Amino acid sequence: MKVIPIPVLEDNYSYILIDEKTKEAAVIDPVEPTKILNLISQTGAQLSSVTNSVFVTHHHWDHSGGNIELVAKKPGLAVYGADARIPEINYVCKDQEEFKLGSLEITPLHTPCHTKGHVCYYVVDPNTSERALFSGDTLFVGGVGKFFEGDARDMYRILFHIITKLPDDTWVYCGHEYTKNNLKFALSVDPGNETLRAKLAWCEDKPVTIPSTIGQEKLYNPFLRVNEQSMQQIVGKNDPVEVLHTLREMKNSFR
């Protein structure tokens, strides 16, 4: 598989996903359609209007707001998601329903918390065993999304019963370039974490810091460490869900 990250708007990412074997392409959260279509044309791949072509993580305008223009430019596109608020949606994907993009296997994972209809897309290339997770605004490098339509218990279930159950070498492609701020917050609560400190130093001069992997996130993302006694002592809570809630509240006010 080939993944092309596309910086859009102020700090968002859209993605082009290509099956290199068949040259079929799909797009994830295509908020700036002209930029995306121009890039696809340069790859030699085809955005099919017959098979799976547009995957939307959630309804927020900075992820789904380009759908109307994209469908107008490419009539007949299949627009996938799990929320009726997504513009132009014409296929509501079920949790763990499998789709194919050429030979790539795409599995929607329902992750309701940031929004009630949020979906992450897990992609496996059976030709290379490479794996990727398009995590939208659920999991970021060094952080997690705000709990707009859910709570800490919802996010705990998502993180520890869905996302961290995926293989550690799964690439994580998130919806925003929030890495530096996330890692600075993480370091403020976990200053002794040398892996975290090294990650922050690595990304300081980089405008694009994705992807990471699930295995890497387990080492420095504080929201994935709420079951560890060291993180519980830092926050002053014993219940991992309360630790997660407290960390998110602290992050909300972090500047």
TrEMBL record:
Sorted keywords for this record are:
Hydrolase, Metal-binding, Zinc
Give cofactor(s), names only: Zn(2+)
Annotated GO biological process: methylglyoxal catabolic process to D-lactate via S-lactoyl-glutathione
- Pfam families linked: HAGH_C, Lactamase_B
Q: Describe the location of the Metallo-beta-lactamase domain by residue ranges.
A: 11-176
Extract the Gene3D superfamilies matched here. Answer: Ribonuclease Z/Hydroxyacylglutathione hydrolase-like
Instruction: Please provide, alphabetically and separated by semicolons, the GO molecular function terms listed in this UniProt record.
Output: hydroxyacylglutathione hydrolase activity; metal ion binding
Q: Which superkingdom does the taxonomy of this entry point to?
A: Eukaryota
Name the HAMAP family for this protein: Glyoxalase_2 (MF_01374)
Q: What is this protein called?
A: hydroxyacylglutathione hydrolase
Originating species: Parasitella parasitica
